Amino acid sequence: MKILSTRNLKKYFPIRSGVFLQVSGWVRALENVNMEISQGETIGIVGESGCGKSTLGRTIVKIYEPTAGSITYCDPSGEAHDISKRIDRRVEPVFRKDVQMIFQNPFDSLDPRMTIRDTIREPLQTHRLFAGKKATKAMDDRVAELLMKVGLYPEYAQRYPHEFSGGQRQRIAIARSISVNPRLLICDEPTSALDVSVQSQIINLLKDIQRDTNMALIFISHNLDVVHHMSDRIMVMYLGNVVESAPATELFDHPAHPYTQALMSAIPSWNPKDRKLGLVKLEGEPPSPINPPSGCPFHPRCRHRLAACSKVKPEAAEVSKGHFSACHLHGV
Amino acid sequence: MTGAVERERERAHERERILTVRNLKTYFRTPEGIVRAVDDVSFHLDRGEVLALVGESGCGKSVTAHSILGLVKAPPAKVEGEIVFGDRNLIGLAEREYRNVRGKQISMIFQEPMSAFDPLYTVGHQLMEVAKAHMPWDESEAKGRIIDTLKSIHIPEPEKRYDEYPHEMSGGMLQRIMIAMALITSPDIIIADEPTTALDVTIQAQVLNLMQDLQSQYRGSIIFITHDLGTVAEIADRVHVMYAGKIVEKAPVVELFDHAIHPYTAGLLTSRVRREYKGKDLPYIEGYVPRAYEFPEGCRFHPRCPRATAKCKETPPPEFEPAQGHTVACWLLEEGHSR
Predict the structure, then answer these.
(1) Is residue A177 within 8 Å of residue A165, measured between CB atoms?
(2) With an 8 Å Cβ cutoff, are A285 and B277 in contact?
(3) Nearest-Cα residue of chain A relative to residue B58
(4) Is residue B78 packed enough to be buried (19+ CB in 10 Å), middle (13-18) or exposed (0-12)?
(5) Domain span at residue A262?
(6) Which end of chain B is more exposed for a tag (fewer CB within 10 A), N or C?
């Protein structure tokens, strides 16, 4: 069952300057992003910093208003709603409960002055999931159940965030986000602030929860290996554009876009007898999204650049079944 | 063990020992108790080699670096042991003398290029400060040298960059400028504290390549501090793995990746997200890194160790040397346990 889709989604941030804060330019954070996610599915979004992957996550949950394009949300009964502008008052509570998010840094995303119990109870109260006389008791039971589910002791409910390590805090953030049984969870770099030995624990936990609840995940990360492990489908972003999207294994076996190939070549080998960093052939740095290059956004750094690349922006072409790449090399 | 000592002596003849750290202890007093951030750590560094200190947050790898550079204020902290650089012990060195070492003979590259530079001055000004403090050059000569250094690390348009402010540059560019800053004085040792952690993979590859080039060009030594074994495999000659203030395993890089012995090192190596694991659970190390003021008794890794025995809970393990140049602090190696 489809949960959410976007069509030509754009997000531009204004740059204001001068005394009257006139708009002097735009940061083009997202350009024409199309995606679709269904129940139980995981979509991975990879790219380097500034490629717009976090903006995409935040626009989907409507932390940001899209500049253009549409977001369609299907409620649990299957009815589709356009939520790109203001969300209908009857749909909003359902949407807000249905789509939850966890953030990169668990040191910032938990309120230091709230106990874990209050932190996890807050969404339950906001969405009025428990009513009546026994609500408090029922909520406490739910908190205990959630803490167990994420691998923490129920007694921890009385404690404050500072008493926990990064990995434990991220577990608390996960408990909070799944407390209202969302159908879609957006994970924005959930493991990159954590230690290596703890990263795998959190990934396993997310996978377990997904298996139990059949929720959909949008998994945003710069770490290709982690995204490959988590996702059914991967979208590679560069300067606000989706340059390639494919099923996870297909993308890793046959990366088509030169940028994806370059990204993969930069993953360390983990083998000191076969060092490969010297082989990475990617010069320069991503240009600024304020003044993106004409044509293909990747052409100034691309090794296979053609004459057309600086003039015409390539459209996504299907290179094999379900595998799309926006590059003139496989143009239509 | 005597055999090991002799072999050490032999090797010392072949290579030039440039830094020796013996029984370094750096303790901090905090409201929660005494933090034994670095606890009896010994290692050495030869000229021209890249030594990686690997460990997770709070293992003491950065405090080790700060202790070497005299950046730990003692008192209130307590720094004990020996840090022999050249023919001097750096511990207890007067601040005025330390200034001839720190930033000149031993320089440092920090993790966050964005916060390591002063946003109010141009990068040229900040590079010039280093040159003026340590080198006998006049202003115009210093500027020429700085521009040359920037050129040598492939910074495009160095003259223009010289007059720019940190906010005008990307993180990768600033990190390269920080490398230039560390190189101006032609130091014997560069300590790089997570130099690529804040960077994207493609930029990380560029910076690592650059460091490798420099290292072979200048024959300087690098202490490379990181939590990422992937980058260690790419750049290090020898690796020391730290956990909770102790070095648990020391080995040449190939040996470490092929024959890791300490359960913590093995755990770190299997924590890598491999493609074969797709659809399965990832292997991981149970539990969490302990807090610095409540390190466990005995072997500090025992609460998380799958092979811990009663002995591990009581007595901290000594260092065993199962192969030449490979030492492991783990009771598993007692009584000729072979690998």
Answers:
(1) no
(2) no
(3) A195
(4) middle
(5) 257-332
(6) N
